């Protein structure tokens, strides 16, 4: 992570003064992010969460070689989003995933936030994938705290095979919680891939902490052991129809909100 004071003020002149202000703003974002990291460490929340993070690796899950992050939100002005980003950076350190192998996307990112992410060494995804990201046959961690149900459903559809799913770890909204909150007919109709994979899923919840009740509520680590997936009926794997949604709680590719987003451009 960039150390505090790592940004220099440019020299004199209107352009340099403007650049200096921009660098000060970027530096302020990184300093606040460093403070969020320190908060996570000093509160004990990260230490308490590390066991859940390591749980998949204690079983048969493949250690992630890369990471994809969706839906961070406006971390420059939202403390919850900032703590979620700080948690992600700690997660990468814990799992030994270089920042350059972590791709991020949120259509809400501002130019300032995009610059901060690049400064941290992360990669901006060029397009809104709507969650449809293939694992490319390598262990992949998906960090998707508080994302819409359709995003998880799309991700599962894109990787709908026992071989691919067994290489994935998802940190995001509890699948058990989704099952409990939705009528079974709605879950099976609108989010069929979540419904079909439930019996092949292992899940460990992040611990509750009074300081982060809203930031990480209903968040779990999910993984899909190959032996459990092989126990699912063959019919489960037969339907590979791409999901469609009448009322979708995610921003779709081509929606106006992403047109001017720096997150929709290559880093």
TrEMBL record:
Signal peptide (residue range): none
InterPro entries referenced in this protein's UniProt entry, alphabetically: SRR1-like (IPR012942), SRR1L (IPR040044)
Record's compositionally biased regions (Basic residues): 9-19
Spans annotated as Disordered: 1-26
GO cellular component: cytoplasm; nucleus
Domain SRR1-like residue range list: 60-223
Pfam families linked to this entry: SRR1
Family: Belongs to the SRR1 family.
The protein's name: SRR1L protein
Species whose genome carries this gene: Thinocorus orbignyianus
Lineage: Eukaryota, Metazoa, Chordata, Craniata, Vertebrata
